[in-house]
Amino acid sequence: MASNSVFSGGVSRRSFLRGSVAASAALALAGCGQASQSGSSNAAASSDSSSASSSSSSDLAKISFVLDYTPNTNHTGIYVAQSKGYFADEGLDVEIVQPPEDGADALIGAGGAQMGVSYQDVMANSFSSDQPMPYTAVAAIIQHNTSGIMSRQADGITRPKLMENHTYATWDQPVEQATIKDVVEADGGDYSKISLVPYNVDDEVSGLRANMFDTVWVYEGWAVQNAKVQNYDVNYFSFISIDDVFDYYTPVIAANDDFAKENPDQVKAFLRAAKRGYEFCVENPSDAADILCDAVPELDSDLVHASQDYLKDQYVADASAWGVIDANRWSKFYQWLNDQNLVENKLDVNKGYDLSYLEA
Q: Which stretches make up the SsuA/THI5-like domain (predicted)?
C-alpha cells in the first residue's frame, strides 16, 4: 500500500472496514485547492466569525476524535462543526485525528481517542470477542446503508444473480462473503459460479477500467459519484434493495465507555455540535463541500461536491432527526450475524448503542 495521502477515488469499502490510513498511489489531478475562491473565503470568514465569539481555547474541554479513514464526505459535518465554531460554542476543543494502523476502533476502545467513527458490522466483531472493546455507538452519521455492488455498465450486471460467471473483488472477510452469498442465492443465483479475486485497489473505477474485476462492493456516495465525475458508465444495485436485513448502520459515531460514563455532558455537547454540522450539510451541501475542501485541499473538488450533493439526502433521510438509531434495524442485523454463525460468540442483539447522549 502507498503513503498516507488523500485521493480522488481512495475511499473503498475494504479500506473502511480495515480502518487503514493507506490510500491509492496517485494524487487527484484537480484538488479541492482549486475550488472556487469565493466558497473557500466564505467558509474561512464564517469560521473566523464563529471562533471570535467562542471561549478562549484554554477554557475548552479537549476531545480527540479519530476518523475511520482519510477525510471524506462522511466526515463533513465534523469539519463544518469545527470550522464554524460549533464545538467551541459547546465548550469543546476537538482534535480530528487519523486512525492508527490497527484502526479507529482500537484507539477508541483503548481511550487514546475519546470518540470516533466506526460501523455496526465492525463493532460486532469486537462485541462478540472474548475481550470486547469498551465503546458504544452514540449516533448514526448516515441513516441507511448506502453500499452495494458496482460493475461496468457494458457487462449488464443489474442484479445479484447476474454476478455469476464474473469476478468479484473480495477483501476476504466472512461477513462480506456471507452477504454476497446471501443476496446472490436469494436472487436465484449460484454463488459458486462467482470467481473471487483479491481486492488490491483503492479506486474502484480504475479497477473496473483495467478489468481487474467485474464487480465490487462500494459506497454509493463515493465510488458511484466518482464514476459519474469520471464519465464512466456503471451499473449499481444496493444491498438494502435486496434484503432490509442489510440496512445496518454504517458509519456511526462511537464513544469510549469510560469517557462517556465520566463525562456525559461532553459527549452530549459533542453530539449537539455535530448535529448542527450535519444539518448544515443537509441545507447547504455546496458550502459544506467547500469547507471540507478548505480543510483537506488534496481531495478532488468535483468528487467532494458530487458526493456532498448525494449525501444531503442520506444524513437524516426518513429519520426523525440526525443521529437516530432504530432499535429494530440494529437488532435485526445482529440477529442475522448470530444466525449465520459469523461471530465468535453470540451477540446480545439489543446492545452496542446508546441514544441517551443524543438530544432531540
A: 72-288
